[in-house]
Design brief:
The protein is 57% helix and 6% strand. It has 345 residues and is mainly alpha-helical. Bound molecules: zinc ion.
């Protein structure tokens, strides 16, 4: 997602979505919370057994230690076997969720979203929808470093949702279903601003961030159980897991989507300086709306961080534009996508 995290919540419900739009950092983390909430949050201080009745002596048993070692070795082998490289950023991560499972789950979520926003979708021939589609086509056409040709094979579909009560947002589902809320249009301001958003969402899809998140969930659950046997406190576990694993991982994926997004935006010959301006406007929006967060416990990097990153990556993006010939015929490449959105509002 553009602001609320790339994770898909495949058991999407209206409650979860409501939480999302109340700026809950990440709906899937809410589910994660609830996984552990049924545990008691007290601890007996007898130094032997915690509230689960589980003794730490358990780990001193040589047989158990051997099993843990074998299990660890098997896990390491499984992890290495399933290592996958993200496009453009080349980051390696473990993804073991098969694509067909990812697509099936995404399809279920897609139907739920269509049902949830029924009556609020702009028609396909609406100027907003057509504009988003044309920008999206330009992005896909421009993607150069897509070794598997995946971007061009995906059946991309853009949905524009008009609901003035929903905060500015956009998100993508595996399978190429992109949702953009019209409330983000004034911040996007022009085609290149919209291209910033759409490129970011496309990057989430190309990097398979949803599958990466799903692949990690069993590990987080296991870690939660192990921690609980040690601490006996679900509160400490939640805080530890969120601050050490979940939030940084989510921020890493968001930053990666920003990076890949900027690179594919540059390959599409958009005005990449507009990405910087867009993030400036987004920060101003956050300041105006009073929504600020403490980055350490946030699923997204702070807007200042994103702004700084984009600024740092711009020279590389410009080089990329040169290499794909964006500057060879500037009039053709840049001029046709320079219409502002001001007239629409
Ligand atoms: Zn995102």
């Amino acid at each position: 997602m553009f602001r609320f995290g790339p994770n898909l919540n495949f058991s999407l419900s209206s409650r979860v979505l409501n939480n999302t739009f109340n700026r809950n950092p990440n709906p899937s983390f809410s589910r994660f919370d609830s996984q552990f909430r049924f545990y008691a949050t007290y601890k007996r201080f007898n130094n032997q057994k915690n509230s689960t009745g589980f003794s730490l002596e358990f780990f001193k048993d040589p047989k158990i230690q051997k099993r843990i070692l074998v299990g660890g070795a098997l896990f390491a082998a499984f992890y290495v076997y399933n290592l996958d490289q993200a496009p453009i950023s080349n980051r390696r991560r473990c993804i073991w969720i098969p694509k067909f499972v990812e697509l099936k789950l995404a399809d279920i979520t897609y139907r739920q979203i269509l049902h949830l926003y029924d009556g609020k979708f702009l028609p396909d021939n609406h100027p907003y929808t057509r504009k988003i589609e044309s920008i999206m086509k330009k992005i896909i056409k421009g993607i150069v470093r897509d070794e598997n040709g995946e971007a061009k094979e995906i059946d991309w579909k853009v949905h524009v949702i008009h609901d003035p009560n929903v905060p500015p947002n956009a998100f993508v589902l595996p399978g190429g279903k992109i949702f953009v809320f019209t409330t983000i249009f004034p911040i996007a301001k022009n085609d290149d601003g919209l291209a910033t958003i759409l490129s970011h969402e496309t990057a989430h899809q190309l990097a398979r961030h949803t599958s990466e998140n799903l692949s990690k969930k069993p590990l987080y659950s296991l870690l939660g159980i192990i921690l609980y046997t040690i601490t006996g406190s679900s509160f400490i576990n939640d805080l530890f897991l969120k601050s050490i694993f979940l939030m940084p991982a989510s921020r890493e994926m968001e930053t990666e989507a920003d990076y890949i997004g900027l690179m594919i935006m540059s390959e599409g010959c958009f005005k990449i300086d507009e990405a910087l301006k867009f993030w400036k406007r987004f920060k101003e929006f956050e300041d105006r709306s009073g929504v600020r967060s403490f980055e350490f416990l946030e699923t997204h990097p702070a807007s200042e961080t994103r702004y700084g990153n984009i600024e740092r990556w711009l020279p590389e993006a410009r080089e990329r534009q040169e290499s794909v010939g964006c500057y060879s015929n500037q009039f053709l490449n840049f001029s046709s996508f320079n219409h502002g959105f001001d007239s629409f509002f």
